[in-house]
Write a structure and sequence with these properties.
It comes from Cavia porcellus. 55% of the residues lie in helices and 12% in strands. With 1075 residues, it is α+β, with helices and mostly antiparallel strands. The chain folds into four domains: 310 residues, no CATH class; 188 residues, 2-Layer Sandwich (Alpha-Beta Plaits), CATH 3.30.70.1230; 105 residues, no CATH class; 205 residues, Alpha-Beta Plaits, CATH 3.30.70. A hairpin with an 8-residue loop joins strand 4 and strand 5. Helix 21 packs parallel to helix 25. The protein is elongated.
Length: 1075
C-alpha cells in the first residue's frame, strides 16, 4: 500500500502534472463515464418498455430515471465546457460522484421490495469508476470509494435490520456486500496506482525527452559554432557528415577508402586577394611580457584585426606567431576583394599607429597583398585549420616579408583590380627579397590619405601617456591600452547556449510560471501574449505535452494505427510485444485477491457444500502454483537450501517476465479461473426449472427462513453469483499491459457466457427468487431495478463497455510509454553521439587538457586561457622538397593533386598521434608543408619546477622517437609516390607560453624564444637530419642519445649559434626501387 500512496514529486512538476497532464488524460474518461451513465439510464427505460411494464404504475422509478437523465445531461454539458474551466474539474468530479451515489440510493428504494443485494453492482460501479475514471487524487478517490461502500451498508443495515423476515440472512449478505465493496476499492486503487505510475513515468520521460532534445539542440549549436570557428559552412557540413559516420561505426580513425587515400577537403577558388600582415618589433616586446600579458595582448590585437576583417568582408585564415593572414573572396566570390584587402591593411596599420602613438611602444605593421587564385580547405586528420595554398599565396607572403613597416605592399595584379581607388607609389627595389627579384615584376606601396592627420592626432594623444609610460613597462602599458579595445574572448559566443535546461528543474520555468489551471487544454485558448513570451524551448515543451493527450488516440498519428493502436513500424511493434514485464507478478497477486473475495462471498451466501469446497481447494492450489511461478525469484534463498534439483525454480519468474507467450497464457488462465469460479455455485443448483414458490398450492412457510430450494443452495446466492461475475469483469482491468484485443476477446466471452447463463439457461433462478419475494397475489410485479436477471444483464453490459474504454486507454498509454522510452533512448544516444562529436571537434581545436576550460558546466570564460611551462620540447618538421614538387597545371588540376599528396603526408603524420607511446605529443599546427608539434604541454603548472631536470625533460625522448617515426612515414609515402622526399627537423626545448586567442576562430598556440629557435633549427637544418641547440643536445645525451656537433652557424635574429645533429638518419638508403 505504500506504493499506492507514495510521496508526490516536486511541487512544480506535480502542479503541472495535476493541472495539465493528468486532467488531459482523465478528462475524456469523465465525459465517457457520463455518457455510459446516460446510456444505462436509457437502457433501463428501453428494458422496462420491452418487458411490457407500465411505467405509469411505477412513478418512483420513472421520476428517478427522468430526473437522473436531466441531471447527468446537465453535468455532461458542464463537463463539455470544463475544458475552458479547469480549476472546477475536481468540484465537478465530486458532483458527478454525489449524483451517482444519490442515484444508487434512489434505485435501492424504487421499484419493489428492498433487499440486501439491491444495487450492489451499481455501487461497485460507482466505487470502481471513482478510482478509474474521475480525475481525483488517490486519497480523494479512496475517501469517495469508502463513503460509497459505507453508505450502502449502513442504509440497508438500518432499513432491513428491524424487519424480522430478513434477519436470518441479513448479516451474511451485509458481510458479502462488505467483501465486494472492499475488493472493489482495492481493485480500483490498484488500477489507479498502476495508471498513475505509468502516466507519471510517461510524463517524466516526456520531460526527459524534452531535456534531451534541448541538450541535443545545444550540442548541435556547439558543433555548429565550433565547426564554423574552424571551417566555412560549406566545408563544415561535408566534414561533419563524415565524422558522424565515423562515430556511428565506432571508429576513431578515418575509414579506409577503396582508393587508399584519405578524404581531401580542398577546392580551388579564383578571383581572391590574400593579405599577410606581421607586427614588427613584437618579438622583443613579447620577451618582456608575463604569460597573461602576452596572451591578452595577442588576443586584443588579433581580436581587433578579426573585427576589421569582418567589416571588410575578409576571412582570417591563420595566426602564425605574430603573423596574421586573411583572404577576401572566400568562400563566396566578391567583385571588390582587392579593395577589401587594401582597406583592411590600411586599417590595421592605422590601428597600430594609434597604439604606438598612445603608448610610445615601438611597434609597427607590415602588410603585403596579392590577388590571384588559391586552393583552400583542410588537410590532415587532427587540429584542422582552414588554410590556403598556391603560388599566389606564396607571393603574398613574400610581399609582406619585403614590405615597409606602416605601409601596404601590393602587386601589379592587385593594383589593376583597385581601378584607381587608391594612390600608390613604386616600391624601392632594395626592399625586395630574392623571390621577388626573381619574378622581376614591379610592386607598389599604397598611400593612405589619412595617415598624416592621424600622426598629428596620435602624437598629441601620446603625450597624455608620456608621464605614465615612464612609470611602467612598455608591455604593461600596451596591455592596459589594448584592454580598452574590448576584444571578445575565445568561445565567448558559446556561453549563451550552455546548459539551457537544468537537470534539477526539468520544466521550463517560464512555462510553469505562466501556466495556471483555469487555462484551456487547447492551446488555441491560451491567453494572448503567452506564446509571445514563451521562447522556442517552451514552445517545444507544449508541443511535447500535447502529444501526451489521450484524445490523440482517436486521431490520425504517424506512430499508431488509428483503429488497432498498433505501431506503424513493424519492428517497433515486435519490440513492444516482446518487451519484458516485471510487474506481471503483481497483476497476478491482485487477481488472486479477487479470487479470494469470490471465495469468501460464496462461503457467506451458500451452505458451503463439500463439492464447492473441493472445487475451490483445487483452484486454490492452481493459484498458489501460479503465484509461486511468478514470485519464485523472491524465494531464492529458501529454494537454495533445498535439493539441487530444485535450484532451477527461481528462473521461472524471469521467464514469465521476459516471455510474452508465457505471460499471455498465464494471464488468460488466471482470468478464466476467476470467471469459472464466479459461477461455480450455480453448478450445484438443480438442473430442472421447477420452482416451488411458483406453485400456489405449495406452502412456503418452511422456506421463508432459509430461502433454500429443497436439497440445494440458498436462492440469495443467485444475485451474488452475478456480483461475483462483475468482479470477474474487473479482474481483466488488473492486467494493465495485456493487449487490447485479448481483453476484448475475454470480456466478450464473459459477457456472452454471463448473459447466456442468467438470461437463458438459469433464468428460472431469478424468476424463482422473485416468486419468493412476491408471494402474495396482491404484490405488484417488481420493477426492472428489482429483477436480478435484468439488472444483472444491464450491469454486465455497463461494465463491459466501461472496461473496454479503459482497456483502450490503458493500451494507448502502455504503447505511448514504450514509444517515449524508445524515443528517449534514441535521443540520448544521439545526444551522446553529438557530445562525442563536440568533444572531438573541440579537441581538434584545443589539446585535450585545455578543452574542458572552454566547454561544459564548469567552463570559465571570464579569463583568457594561458599557461606557462618551464620545459617544453618543440618540433618543426618540414618537407622542403614539396615546394619544388608543387606545381600548378591542367594535368594536376592546378595543384590539387599535389595537395592530395601533402594531405596524405600530414594525415599519416597525424595517425602517429593516436599511438599510445605518442600520447604526450601535441600537434600545434601545420604551416604549408611544415609540421609543428610539442611535448610537455600536459604537465600541470609548476610541476616541472618541483622535479629534477632529468625527469622534467624526459619527454624529449618521446619527441625524438616521434621525429624518427615521421621520417619513416615519409619514406613509405615517398616510395609509393615515386618521390624522394626527405624530412628536415629542428628541435629545441625550454620555457614557453601557451594560450588560446581569437574570438572568431579560436586558436591554441605556443610562444616564446624556445619556439622561435626551434623554427630556426628547422629552417637552417639539413635534409634527413635532426638539428638541435647545444642545450637540447646536452639534455638528449643525458637520456642516452648521441649527438655530434655541426659547428657554429648564423641564425636570423639569434646571431651565431653552436648546433648539433642527433645521431639518427632519417633518409632512406639508396634510390627508390621500381615497382
Amino acid at each position: 500500500m505504500a506504493r499506492l500512496f507514495s510521496p508526490r514529486p516536486p511541487p512544480s512538476e506535480d502542479l503541472f502534472y495535476e493541472t495539465y497532464y493528468s486532467l488531459s488524460q482523465q478528462y475524456p474518461l469523465l465525459l465517457l463515464l457520463l455518457a455510459v451513465v446516460l446510456c444505462g439510464l436509457l437502457a433501463l427505460l428501453a428494458v422496462a418498455w420491452a418487458t411490457a411494464r407500465e411505467l405509469t404504475s411505477d412513478p418512483g422509478f420513472l421520476t428517478t430515471v427522468l430526473c437522473a437523465l436531466g441531471g447527468f445531461s446537465l453535468l455532461l454539458g458542464l463537463a463539455s465546457r470544463e475544458q475552458r474551466l479547469q480549476r472546477w474539474t475536481r468540484s465537478l468530479s465530486g458532483l458527478v460522484w454525489a449524483a451517482l451515489l444519490a442515484l444508487g440510493q434512489g434505485f435501492v428504494f424504487t421499484g419493489g421490495i428492498v433487499s440486501a443485494w439491491d444495487q450492489v453492482s451499481f455501487f461497485l460501479f460507482i466505487i470502481f469508476t471513482v478510482y478509474a475514471m474521475l480525475p481525483l487524487g488517490m486519497w480523494e478517490a479512496a475517501a469517495a470509494g469508502l463513503t460509497s461502500s459505507l453508505s450502502h451498508l449502513l442504509v440497508l443495515g438500518l432499513y432491513l435490520g428491524p424487519q424480522p423476515d430478513s434477519q436470518p440472512a441479513l448479516l451474511p449478505q451485509l458481510a458479502a456486500n462488505a467483501v465486494l465493496f472492499l475488493c472493489g476499492n482495492v481493485v480500483g486503487a490498484y488500477h489507479k496506482a498502476l495508471m498513475e505510475r505509468a502516466l507519471r513515468a510517461t510524463f517524466r520521460e516526456a520531460l526527459s525527452s524534452l531535456h534531451s532534445r534541448r541538450r541535443l539542440d545545444t550540442e548541435k549549436k556547439h558543433q555548429e559554432h565550433l565547426l564554423l570557428s574552424i571551417l566555412p559552412a560549406y566545408l563544415a557540413r561535408e566534414m561533419k557528415a563524415e565524422i558522424m559516420a565515423r562515430l556511428q561505426t565506432g571508429q576513431e580513425s578515418q575509414p579506409e577508402n577503396t582508393n587508399n587515400f584519405h578524404s581531401l577537403y580542398v577546392k580551388r577558388h579564383q578571383g581572391v586577394s590574400v593579405l599577410y600582415a606581421d607586427i614588427v618589433g613584437f618579438t622583443r616586446l613579447a620577451s618582456e611580457c608575463s604569460p597573461k600579458e602576452l596572451v591578452l595582448m595577442l588576443n586584443e590585437l588579433f581580436g581587433k584585426f578579426d573585427q576589421i576583417a569582418k567589416e571588410h568582408e575578409c576571412m582570417r585564415i591563420k595566426i602564425l606567431g605574430d603573423c596574421y593572414y586573411c583572404v577576401s573572396g572566400l568562400p563566396l566570390s566578391l567583385p571588390d576583394h582587392a579593395v577589401n584587402c587594401v582597406r583592411m591593411g590600411l586599417d590595421m596599420c592605422r590601428a597600430i599607429r594609434k597604439l604606438r602613438a598612445a603608448t610610445g611602444v615601438d611597434i609597427n605593421m607590415r602588410v603585403g597583398v596579392h590577388s590571384g587564385s588559391v586552393l583552400c580547405g583542410v588537410i590532415g586528420l587532427q587540429k584542422w585549420q582552414y588554410d590556403v595554398w598556391s603560388h599566389d599565396v606564396t607571393l603574398a607572403n613574400h610581399m609582406e616579408a619585403s614590405g615597409v613597416p606602416g605601409r601596404v605592399h601590393i602587386t601589379g595584379a592587385t593594383l589593376t583590380l583597385l581601378a584607381g581607388a587608391y594612390a600608390v607609389e613604386d616600391a624601392a627595389m632594395e626592399h625586395r627579397d630574392p623571390y621577388l627579384r626573381e619574378l622581376g615584376e614591379p610592386t607598389y606601396l599604397v598611400i593612405d590619405p589619412r595617415a598624416e592627420e592621424e600622426d598629428e592626432k596620435g602624437t598629441a594623444g601620446g603625450l597624455l601617456f608620456s608621464l605614465e609610460g615612464h612609470k611602467m613597462r612598455p608591455s604593461l602599458l600596451m596591455t592596459r591600452y589594448l584592454q580598452s579595445w574590448g576584444a571578445a574572448k575565445p568561445f565567448a559566443h558559446l556561453s549563451h547556449i550552455d546548459n539551457p535546461v537544468s537537470t534539477s528543474t526539468p520544466l521550463p520555468e517560464k512555462a510553469l510560471a505562466s501556466f495556471s489551471p483555469q487555462w484551456s487544454l487547447d492551446r488555441s485558448w491560451t491567453p494572448r501574449g503567452l506564446d509571445d513570451e514563451l521562447d522556442t524551448g517552451d514552445a517545444k515543451f507544449f508541443q511535447v505535452i500535447e502529444q501526451l493527450n489521450s484524445q490523440k488516440q482517436w486521431k490520425q498519428s504517424k506512430d499508431f494505427n488509428l483503429l488497432t493502436l498498433y505501431f506503424r513500424e513493424k519492428e517497433m511493434e515486435k519490440q513492444y510485444r516482446f518487451s519484458a514485464l516485471p510487474a506481471f507478478k503483481y497483476y497476478t497477486a491482485c487477481a488472486f485477491l479477487v479470487f479470494v473475495s469470490n471465495f469468501i462471498i460464496q462461503m457467506l451466501v451458500t451452505n458451503r457444500p463439500p463439492a464447492l469446497a473441493f472445487t475451490y481447494s483445487i483452484t486454490f492450489l492452481l493459484f498458489l502454483l501460479l503465484l509461486f511461478i511468478c514470485f519464485s525469484e523472491h524465494l531464492t534463498w529458501c529454494i537454495q537450501k533445498g535439493p539441487k534439483m530444485l535450484h532451477w525454480l527461481p528462473a521461472l519468474s524471469g521467464l514469465v517476465a521476459t516471455q510474452p507467450g508465457l505471460r499471455v497464457a498465464l494471464g488468460t488462465a488466471t482470468i478464466l479461473l476467476i470467471f469459472t469460479m464466479a459461477i461455480a455455485s450455480l453448478f450445484f443448483l438443480p438442473a430442472s426449472a421447477d420452482c416451488p414458490f411458483q406453485t400456489p398450492s405449495v406452502s412456503s412457510v418452511g422456506f421463508n427462513l432459509s430461502w433454500e430450494l429443497p436439497g440445494s443452495l440458498p436462492l440469495i446466492s443467485v444475485p451474488y453469483s452475478m456480483h461475483c461475475c462483475v468482479l470477474g469483469f474487473l479482474s481483466c482491468s488488473l492486467f494493465l499491459h495485456m493487449s487490447f484485443e485479448l481483453k476484448l476477446a475475454l470480456l466478450l466471452l464473459w459477457l456472452t457466457a454471463s448473459c447466456s447463463i442468467f438470461l437463458y439457461s438459469h433464468a428460472w433462478l431469478s424468476d424463482c427468487l422473485i416468486a419468493h419475494l412476491y408471494l402474495s397475489p396482491l404484490d405488484s410485479r417488481p420493477g426492472v431495478l428489482k429483477e436480478p436477471k435484468l439488472m444483472g444483464a444491464i450491469s454486465f453490459f455497463i461494465f463491459f463497455f466501461t472496461l473496454l474504454v479503459l482497456a483502450r486507454q490503458n493500451e494507448y498509454y502502455c504503447r505511448l510509454d514504450f514509444l517515449w522510452k524508445k524515443k528517449l533512448r534514441q535521443e540520448q544516444e544521439e545526444t551522446e553521439t553529438m557530445e562525442n562529436l563536440t568533444r572531438l571537434l573541440l579537441e581538434n581545436v584545443l589539446p585535450a587538457h585545455v578543452a574542458p576550460q572552454f566547454i561544459g558546466q564548469n567552463r570559465r570564460n571570464e579569463d583568457l586561457y594561458h599557461q606557462s611551462y618551464e620545459c617544453v620540447c618543440v618540433l618543426f618538421a618540414s618537407v622542403p622538397d614539396f615546394k619544388e614538387f608543387y606545381s600548378e597545371s591542367n594535368i594536376n588540376h592546378e595543384g590539387l593533386e599535389c595537395l592530395r599528396l601533402l594531405n596524405e603526408i600530414i594525415a599519416d603524420f597525424d595517425e602517429l598521434l593516436s599511438k599510445p607511446k605518442f600520447s604526450g605529443v601535441e600537434k600545434i599546427k601545420t604551416i604549408g608543408s611544415t609540421y609543428m608539434a610539442a611535448t610537455g604541454l600536459n604537465a600541470t603548472s609548476g610541476q616541472d619546477a618541483q622535479q629534477d631536470a632529468e625527469r622534467s625533460c624526459s619527454h624529449l625522448g618521446t619527441m625524438v622517437e616521434f621525429a624518427v617515426a615521421l621520417g619513416s612515414k615519409l619514406d613509405v609515402i615517398s616510395k609509393h609516390s615515386f618521390n624522394n622526399f626527405r624530412l628536415r627537423v629542428g628541435l629545441n626545448h625550454g620555457p614557453v607560453v601557451a594560450g588560446v586567442i581569437g574570438a572568431q576562430k579560436p586558436q591554441y598556440d605556443i610562444w616564446g624564444n624556445t619556439v622561435n629557435v626551434a623554427s630556426r633549427m628547422e629552417s637552417t637544418g639539413v635534409l634527413g637530419k635532426i638539428q638541435v641547440t647545444e642545450e637540447t643536445a646536452q639534455a638528449l645525451q643525458s637520456l642516452g642519445y648521441t649527438c655530434y656537433s655541426r659547428g657554429v652557424i648564423k641564425v636570423k635574429g639569434k646571431g651565431q649559434l653552436c648546433t648539433y645533429f642527433l645521431n639518427t638518419d632519417l633518409a632512406r638508403t639508396g634510390p627508390p626501387s621500381a615497382l
